[in-house]
Amino acid sequence: MEFTKSLIKGKLIKRYKRFFVDVKLNKETVTAHCPNTGSMKGLLEEGNEVFIQKHDDPKRKLKYGLEIIKARKNLVGINTHMANKIVNHALDNNLIKELKNNDLVKSEVFYNKETRFDFFIRKKNQKIFVEVKNVTLFRDKRTAEFPDAITSRGTKHLLTLIDAIKKGYKSYLIYLVQIENMDYFKIASDIDNEYYKNYLAAKKAGVKFLAYRCKISSNKIFVDKKLKIKDE
Questions:
Q1: Cα(first)–Cα(last) distance of the chain, in Å?
Q2: pLDDT digits over 95-125, tens only?
Q3: What is the structure's pLDDT at 2?
Q4: What CATH architecture does domain 80-230 belong to?
Q5: For 154-190, b where at least 16 C-beta lie within 10 A, e where not — what string?
Q6: N- or C-end of the chain: fewer Cβ atoms within 10 A?
Q7: Domain residue spans of the chain
Q8: How many CA atoms lie within 13 A of 229 on its CB side?
Q9: Cβ–Cβ under 8 Å, residues 120 and 132
């Protein structure tokens, strides 16, 4: 996915009320929209280098949006709304080897009245549901982790992916690691043990788990490399 405009570099001052970040641009301080309502654990240290995008839409209350934070020498894509676009681009360009050469890819498809999965794929005689989780947490130099806070919604998706298998679908969950330089991925069981237990149950039931790292720059973000998943 390419950004519509090159991003502008600044310094993080603070995030507040979940949706706002103050950023220093040269001698000016601007308030940007934060498109990530999660904890963003480990990313919000004052003085971190950030990249924001300027928007020309006159209807927007905030002219800037936060896209990337540089934390501990790694660029991290924090815009959760970009995750599905990045995966959609990867599916269209066969960048995810387990899901190549698809006959049909549809976004935001309802599985039942309560749950909508990020993608439905038809491939030969297979019907596949795919859920995407954006990953921004890393607590060592080489391992990305999910989740960064307790996620009841994430647990619900795991259980529904299991149910889809029982009804004859194939189920995939893609952890999209928007963090540079990662080689491994694991579930942060110390942060949400309930999610970890359901992850193990889903794996046993046949849900396929994939972790792919992104290549990140101020011009574009795209799927780059498959990561090894470490089970505790």
A1: 33
A2: 999 999 999 999 999 999 889 999 999 998 8
A3: 87
A4: 3-Layer(aba) Sandwich (3.40)
A5: bbebbebbbebbeeebbbbbbbbbbbbebebbbbbbe
A6: C
A7: 8-77, 80-230
A8: 17
A9: no
Provide CATH code, domain 8-77: 2.40.50.580
Structure tokens at 103: 């006959």
Residue 94 structure tokens: 């066969």
| Neighbour count for residue 52 (Cβ, 10 Å) | 23
CATH topology match: 8-77 vs 80-230: no
Task: For residue range 123-135, list pLDDT tens digits in order.
Answer: 988 999 999 999 9
